[in-house]
Amino acid sequence: MKVTIIGAGNVGATCAQFLYQQQKVREIILIDKNPDVAEGKVIDILQAGIFVGNTTKLSGYTDVYDASENSDVIVVTAGVPRKKGMSREELVSVNTSVVTDVVGKCLKFSPKAKIIVLTNPVDSMTYLILKEFNLPRNQVIGMGGILDTARFKYYIQEKLQKSSDQIQAFVIGGHGDKTMLPLARLATYGGVSIVQFLTKVEIDDIVEKTMKGGATLTAMLGTSAWLAPAQALCELILAILYDKKVFFSCSVLLEGEYDEKDVCIGVPCLIGKEGMEQIIELPLIDQEKSQFSQSVSAIKSVNLEMLNL
Known about the structure:
- The protein has helices at 10-22, 37-49, 92-109, 122-133, 145-160, 200-211, 213-221, 227-241, 286-307, and strands at 2-6, 27-32, 57-62, 73-76, 114-117, 140-142, 167-168, 171-173, 180-182, 188-189, 192-193, 246-255, 261-272, 275-279.
- By secondary structure, the chain is α/β, with parallel strands linked by helices.
- It has two domains: 2-142, Rossmann fold; 145-307, Lactate dehydrogenase/glycoside hydrolase, family 4, C-terminal (L-2-Hydroxyisocaproate Dehydrogenase, Chain A, domain 2, Alpha-Beta Complex), CATH 3.90.110.10.
- Helix 1 (10-22) packs across helix 8 (227-241), helix 4 (122-133) packs across helix 9 and helix 5 (145-160) packs antiparallel against helix 6 (200-211).
- It is globular, with a radius of gyration of 19 Å.
């Protein structure tokens, strides 16, 4: 099992660290365009591993893409991260060329690898890769909804003051502050709707905090968060490598599901060794359908701008 991570910034390097510590991957490759960055972070991770021992092979390279040959999963974190005051959508022009360049180089050596996209705006970058390289939709997955759902569950747990492992919830829609749709109506604790435990005011507060989750941390940290995104990436990677058949909210290409086509957007998916193996259509009410449709329109607008660059 081999994983290549493109981009040795906070998220990419932390994802490599988490994977290395779990010792569930045979080989991890970390690649960055900046000289010595990937190599230096790999040495740091390996030196930390001395304290516990580890047999996973971990290597860092500067723009050496043949090292990624025969990867099972390729993770794309390369590009400019969001800064304070920026929206994810503002990154489209600068990150478009970066993503197509690195993915094209990787596909030369691993044409069948499952591709996980984290570069923002995630939904548009996922769509770009699918269209640019004419790939099957199961092969390219945007990692946005998993992180948004983790934040949703965190805020529910914060209100309930109960164990998170009993909370079930999904965030669908775009990976954007104004385009995501936390499905509070369908969220449960121990199989019981959260409306039985929380007031409408409390639930509205959870939804608002979830939608602003990324921007809140960016304002506090001065850059995008990296620990939760890296852990979310690890969960998705291992679900593919170990054929876990788990449900995650991921950005994938719709071909009629939810009455939408030709757009990548966050929906619940069954994830296994083939990547995205099935899209689950949740029973949305009219208001949710309308919000989802608005999210689709917003993403398609960004896609149009991207394709016209």
